[in-house]
């Protein structure tokens, strides 16, 4: 089982589409669809991101998500903690106290201090969290992921989201017309 789940990966990829502001904020469904990931899962993730103050939502047909603060102020660690909660890298089971030679009565020296194995795992967790805290959405967008992307791709992304928004707006208007026509027929 991976320590950092796919929810964090989905969240980071979706958030990268929000780094460059779009004319209309994309919905969680749009963000899921553009990447081919499950819409229900992305909606659940964005609820957590909103609760953590990473994104803000606007409601209605024109609603969607925007970053709640600058991309440089949102770390990968912020996203990971929002999506998965702060969880320990290692769950020490104090195996050292269960030695058969202790006959269910371990001596004090056997449990004194932090177990060496646990200490290594705690250190690894601190190093990992520090590294994730150093990387922001802005650095991801500008870093290796952003290199090699054709110059026109950002424009294609904006057009894709705009077309989705226009289709929703068109469906809304068609629905209003149909309801109005139905009322006139009554």
Description:
- The chain has a domain at 6-86 and 137-185: Arc Repressor Mutant, subunit A (Orthogonal Bundle).
- It is 57% helix and 4% strand.
- It has 8 helices and 2 strands, in the order H-H-H-E-E-H-H-H-H-H.
- The chain has helices at residues 6-19, 28-35, 39-51, 76-84, 108-111, 116-134, 137-142, 153-185; strands at 55-58, 64-67.
- It has a two-stranded antiparallel sheet with strand order 1-2.
- Helix 2 crosses helix 3 (39-51).
- The longest helix has 33 residues, at 153-185.
- 18% of the residues are buried.
- The model has no long low-confidence stretch (mean pLDDT 85).
Keywords:
about 190 residues; mainly alpha; Arc Repressor Mutant, subunit A; two-stranded antiparallel sheet; 8 helices; 2 strands; about 5% strand
Count of distinct strands: 2
Instruction: Please give the count of helices.
Output: 8
Portion of residues within helices: 55-70%
Low-confidence stretches: none
CATH class of the domain at 6-86 and 137-185: Mainly Alpha
What's the CATH superfamily of the domain at 6-86 and 137-185, by name? Winged helix-like DNA-binding domain superfamily/Winged helix DNA-binding domain
Q: How much strand?
A: under 5%
Distance between the termini: 60 Å
CATH topology of the domain at 6-86 and 137-185: Arc Repressor Mutant, subunit A
Mean pLDDT: 85
Derived structural class: mainly alpha
Task: Tell me about the largest β-sheet.
Answer: 2 strands, antiparallel
- The whole-angstrom Rg is 24 Å
Order of helices and strands: HHHEEHHHHH
Strand order of the largest sheet: 1-2
* CATH architecture assignment of the domain at 6-86 and 137-185: Orthogonal Bundle
In one word, what is the shape? elongated
């Amino acid at each position: 089982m991976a320590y950092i789940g796919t929810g964090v990966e989905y969240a980071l990829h979706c958030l990268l589409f929000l780094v460059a502001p779009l004319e209309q904020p994309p919905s969680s469904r749009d963000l899921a669809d553009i990447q081919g990931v499950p819409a229900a899962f992305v909606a659940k993730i964005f609820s957590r991101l909103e609760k953590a103050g990473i994104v803000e939502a606007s409601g209605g047909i024109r609603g969607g998500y925007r970053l709640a603060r600058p991309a440089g102020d949102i770390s990968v660690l912020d996203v990971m903690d929002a999506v998965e909660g702060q969880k320990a890298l290692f769950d020490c089971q104090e195996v050292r106290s269960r030695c058969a030679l202790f006959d269910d009565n371990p001596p004090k020296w056997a449990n004194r201090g932090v177990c060496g194995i646990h200490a290594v795992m705690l250190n690894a967790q601190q190093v990992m969290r520090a590294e994730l805290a150093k990387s922001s959405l802005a650095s991801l967008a500008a870093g290796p992921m952003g290199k090699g992307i054709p110059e026109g791709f950002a424009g294609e992304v904006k057009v894709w989201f705009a077309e989705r928004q226009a289709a929703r707006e068109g469906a809304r208007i068609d629905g209003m017309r149909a309801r109005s026509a139905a009322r006139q027929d009554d």
